[in-house]
Description:
Chain A has 262 residues and is an alpha/beta fold. Chain A is 39% helix and 23% strand. Chain A has nine helices and ten strands. In chain A, the strands form two sheets. Chain A has a six-stranded mixed sheet, sandwiched between helices. In chain A, strands 2-1-4-5 form a four-stranded antiparallel sheet, with helices on one face. In chain A, helix 3 (105-115) packs across helix 4 (121-134) and helix 3 (105-115) packs parallel to helix 5. Chain A is globular, with a radius of gyration of 18 Å. Chain B has one domain (2-211): MetI-like (MetI-like fold), CATH 1.10.3720.10. With 216 residues, chain B is mostly helical.
Amino acid sequence: MSEMTPSSKLPIVRIESLYKAYQGTEVLKGISMAVQEQDVVVIIGPSGTGKSTLLRCINLLAIPDKGQIWLDDIEVTAPHTNIDKVRQRIGMVFQEFNLFNHLTALNNVTIGMTRVLKMKSKEAQEKAMWELERVGLVDKAALFPAQLSGGQKQRVAIARALGMNPEVMLFDEPTSALDPELIGEVLNVMQKLAYEGMTMLVVTHEMGFAREVSDRIVFMEKGVIVEEGPPKQLFYNPKFERTRDFLWKITELYGKDEEKKS
Amino acid sequence: MEILQDLALLFRYLLAGTGVTLAVSAIAISLGFAFGVTLAIMRVYGGCFLSRFALIYSTAVRAIPVVVIIFLLYFVIASAVDLSPFLSGALALGFSSAAYQSEVFRGAFQSVSGGQMLAARALGMGRMQAIRFVILPQAIRLAIPPWSNEAAIVLKDSSLVYILGVPEILRRAEYVSAVTLQPFLAFGAAAIIYFILTFLTNRGLDWLERHYRILT
């Protein structure tokens, strides 16, 4: 999809030489990247490489030490940017789901619309039902998070983010906390979103998803981007030995599940 | 027959004080709740200054006997502003209870997982919005069991305002005891009324706890 976007168009997300350290340990060491509208970018790399931190910096759940982030024409990292307004435009899905435990699936989706977007309750409920429909969970609307399976929780979390009509969706290892047999239903929803044209940044170890759905794969290691490009290039013709090694290792590890799912 | 009449008279007299006991308790518990929740929020989510203030308040107030707080409020503060014994007593109990309730709610706030705040902020809620719509509703439910205990304690501690002459149950029982020279009957009747009040309060809160329990 990225090839079709005119190159003159401003990227929806632009990151320039981003640095972030936690208690003296440098996690991000000068990350620069750009994401065009409707792009699906998958970020891969060994754990502890700063992939999640990078995602969290984009909506300032983690505050970068240095560097700039732009959402469309707004500089997210500028001192006077209203960060709550920026976050409304960016959906986020967490590894641990983080559904609001005291609310039903339906109200998990409506709360952002009514409290943040100030939508009328009835209107919000209708839209929330539609979002639950999109993730295939209309029949679970009245259930509480504790009554849902991990896969269902994650799909409600996706619906919750979609309810805000985000321009970009960030997925932080959305399937890593799931039992293997529940991963497929979440990936299917994500794949559908990608085909509908949602701009997505996905941190994942699901190589099948990366290969089939993404427009571009970014391989990160030790806080820097080692290599990025279309999936075909990274999988079959990587420039660096490290990329090849990592992909080989991860496909070996997760490969057997991949076969079953696809 | 005469003893029955005496008993009826005694209970009627004490029940008139029950309204006062309930009023003092209701004011104290509500004030303690509002102020206690505020202190807990300051403690957990406030900056250096606010959390320090909440900590000092809670530590200091919990270290002072309630009776001393009642005396301080009535004889020192009420001499500057016009406060009835009833109001002084109720407020003193409320300020004291706020310290204990702040500890109850602090624990509850801290046991709501950090992911809840992250998810709320990621939706675009401000910090106060996230606390109000996501964290607080969960914390209050988690706090109901220890909070019931505190409510029962305040209800019983409301008897302490008798030292200011507020005509609640204990004060009236003391009066009956002095007039009739039957302390066992007078205080026994007071004990029964306190027992019933505390019992009903706890049953009500048990129901709330079951009704608003968060499934896990």
